[in-house]
């Protein structure tokens, strides 16, 4: 009964602000927890010999050192906390600060890549043709497109127009950053090119698909909260909400799938 | 699939486009790149190596003119089916000439035969 006097909108706003503040504090205190590449190799060690494990460990450590983007992650943390506070302001749609904080996390990921690209003068290049679809599979792109279409449909309702537009824009920017990562050069130092290339492929895939999944998160939150506020939603809107949720789940599954997979080294 | 790797040494006296061409040629001769194997796009290779796309394009063009590669427009560049592979004897002669030239260069710079030999043994 304690929250009986709190409106649905106010409750959603408070919960969003608290969640963003908590997320920002985690980013500040442990900047490596979101963009560290170690988590992409949880399942990679099975089946590797001691010598291969040592090589993989050493390449992951060298790359983590070279990326050194903890400053960007801390900036993103501060920004997320600021967005949490900003979200308490009743004049703005509460999904907007969440969408903006997702952009902050994407910024930290992109800065890690930029830092890494500047880390070496002498670069090795694999003589293998890559396509962006290896890092961003069509199923992730199609799922994100479904999510986008579903969210855009909510713009037809006047009270959600601004929030839907903000979420759509944030989504497009996040997917664009994911695409840039998918087409970014492979940076190999040449110490152990074979392992470096395998690590680069895994990191590229996890980051690109992870950002697409992140891009689908604000639309899902937005669609669920907007749905809860509608007195009698139409059948079409029901379908659109299902599209958004399906898109989010599909992108999440695609992005998490390789984390459990082993890695093949000669 | 194991990949071959290229590297461009900016401090070398050999121009970057020639370094690229020589390494691709060597990969074809070692059979790391088989006939019809697709090569990275000019843009991808230039990005990976951190050099200008024109440099990679020049290396590819030169190798196409020599018959090592085949350009297929938007479909990319692949290794020619009848690449002018050197025979074993030609390869051995090429290696001998390269080593002789390299050793002579070191002797001109004042290194003794013993020093060069010791350095070779350490390097190998």
List the helices and strands and how they pair.
The complex is a heterodimer of chains A (266) and B (124).
Chain A: H1 8-29, H2 32-35, H3 50-67, H4 70-86, H5 95-117, E1 124-126, H6 132-135, H7 138-153, H8 161-183, H9 193-229, H10 235-256
Chain B: E1 5-7, H1 16-29, H2 42-49, H3 53-65, E2 69-71, E3 77-79, H4 88-108, H5 113-123
Antiparallel strand pairs in B: 2-3
Helix pairs in contact in B: 1-3, 2-3
Helicity level of chain A, as a percent range? 55-70%
SS field, number of helical segments of chain B: 5
- Biggest chain pair interface: A-B, 21 and 25 residues
Distance between the termini of chain B: 27 Å
Low-pLDDT stretches of chain B: none
Described by strand count, sense and barrel closure, the largest sheet of chain B is: 2 strands, antiparallel
Can you describe this structure in just a few lines?
Chain A has about 270 residues and is an all-alpha fold.
Task: List the main descriptive attributes of the protein structure presented here.
heterodimer; A: 266 residues; mainly alpha; B: 124 residues; Arc Repressor Mutant, subunit A; 54% helix; 7% strand; globular
Describe it:
The complex is a heterodimer of chains A (266) and B (124). In chain A, 70% of the residues lie in helices and 1% in strands. Chain A has 266 residues and is mostly helical. Chain A has one domain (8-260). In chain A, α5 (95-117) packs antiparallel against α9 (193-229). The model of chain A has no long low-confidence stretch (mean pLDDT 84). Chain B has 124 residues and is mainly α. Chain B folds into two domains: 16-79, Winged helix-like DNA-binding domain superfamily/Winged helix DNA-binding domain (Arc Repressor Mutant, subunit A, Orthogonal Bundle); 88-123. Chain B has five helices and three strands. Chain B has helices at 16-29, 42-49, 53-65, 88-108, 113-123, and strands at 5-7, 69-71, 77-79. In chain B, α1 (16-29) crosses α3 and α2 (42-49) packs across α3. The mean pLDDT of chain B is 87. Classes of the chains: A mainly alpha (266), B mainly alpha (124). Chain A binds chain B through residues 117, 121-130, 184-188, 190, 193-194, 197, 266, and chain B through 1-10, 24, 27, 32-33, 38-41, 44-45, 47-50, 76. β1 (124-126) of chain A pairs antiparallel with β1 (5-7) of chain B.
